[in-house]
Specification:
Strand content: over 45%
CATH topology: Porin
Order of helices and strands: HHEEEEEEEEEEEEE
Largest sheet: 12 strands, antiparallel, barrel
Structural class: mainly beta
Number of domains: 1
C-alpha cells in the first residue's frame, strides 16, 4: 500500500475515535442510573441481549487483515437502537475500506451496509434466545468482496447464557441467501460462531471465539479470535485483539481495535 493510501486509511480511523473523546470524558460523570453498554464487537457472534432501550449505541473500530500479498484495512461501524428490551434495529457497515491486491493496486471506498431487525426471547434471568433478520445492501466496490454484489438476506439464530457471575456464552448460527453466486457455488452460506467471555478484575475482560462458514461449491473458512476489553465507565467499552485463520481460505491474520459507547437517549 502506498504511503498516501496508508495515511488516508489511518485518518479514517483516527477521526471518529477523536470525535468520541468528549463522549468518553462525559461518561465518567454518568450516574449509577445510567445504563451500561452492550458491546457486540469484536466477535463474529452477537449476543441475544439488546442495548439499553431508547439509547443510541454506537460501535466503531479498525481492522487490518491479510493473506499473503493481499491486505485489507477497514473501519467497521454499528448503530444500535433498542425499541424495547425485546425488539431492536441495527445498521452495520464499513465507513472506509483500503484494499491492496497481489498486483500492488490499492483502492479506497466504503463497504457494504446491512439493516437488521432483532427479536429477543427471554428464557430465564440468565439465558435467552435471539433472532435477527438482516438485509445486506451492495454499497461496496466489487474488489472489496464483502458480499455478492447484490442484495443479500440473512437469518441469524442466537443463544446466550450467563454460565456464572464472570462467564458468558454466545452461540450463533446464520444462513445467508446471496443475491448472486458463482456457477459452481450455492446461493446459500451458513455461518456458525461460539464465543466465551470472562470478566477479570475491575473493568477488564477477555473473550475467545471459534467461527466459520460453509457454502456448497466453495471452500470452508474457520478462524480463532482472542480479544481483551476495558470499560473505564458504564457507557464506554474499548476492545482490542487478533484473529487467526484456521483454513487456507481464511485470512492468515487479523488485528483490530475499537470501542462501544452510549450517546444520546432518543426514545
Amino acid at each position: 500500500m502506498s504511503h498516501r493510501a496508508n495515511t488516508t486509511a489511518y485518518l479514517l480511523v483516527l477521526v471518529p475515535l477523536l470525535m468520541a473523546i468528549p463522549t468518553v470524558a462525559q461518561a465518567d460523570l454518568a450516574s449509577e442510573d445510567t445504563p451500561t453498554v452492550t458491546p457486540y464487537r469484536p466477535t463474529v457472534s452477537t449476543p441475544a441481549a439488546l442495548s439499553a432501550p431508547g439509547w443510541l449505541e454506537i460501535e466503531g473500530g479498525w481492522i487490518t487483515s491479510g493473506s499473503g500479498a493481499d491486505k485489507r484495512q477497514s473501519t467497521p461501524y454499528s448503530l444500535k437502537l433498542a425499541l424495547s428490551p425485546d425488539w431492536g434495529i441495527r445498521i452495520d457497515g464499513e465507513a472506509a475500506v483500503a484494499a491492496i491486491t497481489t498486483d500492488g493496486r490499492t483502492q479506497l471506498g466504503a463497504g457494504d451496509t446491512s439493516f437488521t431487525l432483532k427479536r429477543r426471547f427471554s428464557i430465564t434471568d440468565h439465558s435467552a434466545f435471539g433472532l435477527e433478520a438482516q438485509v445486506g445492501a451492495a454499497t461496496a466496490k466489487p474488489l472489496f468482496q464483502t458480499g455478492s454484489g447484490h442484495t443479500d438476506y440473512t437469518m441469524n439464530g442466537i443463544f446466550s447464557s450467563d454460565l456464572s457471575d464472570a462467564d458468558h456464552l454466545d452461540l450463533n448460527y446464520a444462513v445467508t441467501r446471496f443475491g448472486a453466486a458463482a456457477l459452481t457455488e450455492s446461493h446459500e452460506q451458513s455461518r456458525w460462531a461460539a464465543a466465551l467471555s470472562h470478566s477479570i478484575t475491575g473493568p477488564w475482560g477477555m473473550s475467545g471465539e471459534l467461527s466459520g462458514t460453509r457454502q456448497l461449491g466453495a471452500n470452508q473458512t474457520r478462524q480463532f479470535l482472542m480479544a481483551a476489553s476495558y470499560s473505564p465507565s458504564r457507557t464506554v467499552a474499548w476492545d482490542f485483539g487478533l484473529a487467526r485463520g484456521l483454513s487456507t481460505t481464511s485470512p492468515h491474520w487479523s488485528v483490530f481495535a475499537g470501542l462501544t459507547m452510549l450517546t444520546v437517549k432518543l426514545l
